[in-house]
Task: inverse folding
């Protein structure tokens, strides 16, 4: 992936890519989620969105809105979305996607059928950062 500066010079950026979320921030129902994301961003207009296309092969097309952090492409969705995955039914509470320079980071916060909370993230996701700590706490 090109650097943020290169993408800004081009004006419009879009990409579709897989991410494996296997860092157990709050363990629970599963060890990992195979997610597919996309994004489109118009740098001159400073507008765009990302999409969580699928989780473990189940199509979602969950739109994620920009967080408005300067010089970063960061997106989040907070719609509670029920999903039937191979290991059981879950409710996705939040999804966050960070595209910083050449790094891609993501996390999904979800609940199982019986209310058990789980958060899975990419290995490079930093739960200690201020924004991500709020994500973990559900703020």
Result:
């Amino acid at each position: 992936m090109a650097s943020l500066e290169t993408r800004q010079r081009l004006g419009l950026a879009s990409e579709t890519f897989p991410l494996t979320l296997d860092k157990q921030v709050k363990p629970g129902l599963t060890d990992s989620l195979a997610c597919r994301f996309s994004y489109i961003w118009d740098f001159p207009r400073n507008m765009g969105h990302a999409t969580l296309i699928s989780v473990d092969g189940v199509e979602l097309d969950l739109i994620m809105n920009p967080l408005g952090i300067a010089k970063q492409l960061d997106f989040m969705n907070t719609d509670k979305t029920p999903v039937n995955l191979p290991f059981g039914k879950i409710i996705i509470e939040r999804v966050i996607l960070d595209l910083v320079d050449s790094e891609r980071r993501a996390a999904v916060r979800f609940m199982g059928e019986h209310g058990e909370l789980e958060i899975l993230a990419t290995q490079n996701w930093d739960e200690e950062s201020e924004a991500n700590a709020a994500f973990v706490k559900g703020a």
